Amino acid sequence: MRVLDAARDLTCDAGWDQVSLSAVATRAGVSRPSVYKEFGSRAGLGRALVIRETQEFFAGLGDILHPGLPDTHASLEAAIFYVLTQADERPFVRAVVAAAREGSDSLLPYLTARADPVFDTGQALLRDWLGERHPARGEQTVEDAADIAVRMTISHLILPDRAPRPTARRLAAAVLKLLEDSP
């Protein structure tokens, strides 16, 4: 959709704080009232933009996990590495993460604090995958492991403490240890 493309481009160029519905409408070649009619508000536009971007993002993540590598650790590490490197490779993710690192969090809540689309989608994808790989583990243990993996990966995405590869290796090991150590 042209309006979401325009919103993404403006966000990547100047940051979400500088994006107005008027600027989005102008860039998309539509009227401002039509943007309001479609999205209701700037927040509605931001939410729709994040949903679209995360759907594309999770499609890539799903491709890594399913069918995935035979080695569960290597597959999980590859998935976490994918997430951590997207901050540099996807302009929209890079713009949101860079703004968060600089103290602006206007789009960050859609990625981290609100239940959907990132947490719910990420946890469901990982929960299902871990459940397939560890069918003997209880549902709650698998859900906890997926929750921890998603929260810790996003934390390292926003505030990295080392290079993506060792972080991915460490997080994958911790999540799988939780599964192995649980009754």
TrEMBL record:
Keywords: DNA-binding, Transcription, Transcription regulation. Residues 20-39 bind DNA. Residues 1-57 form the HTH tetR-type domain. It comes from the Bacteria. SUPFAM superfamilies: Homeodomain-like. Pfam families: TetR_C_35, TetR_N. This is TetR/AcrR family transcriptional regulator. It comes from Streptomyces enissocaesilis.
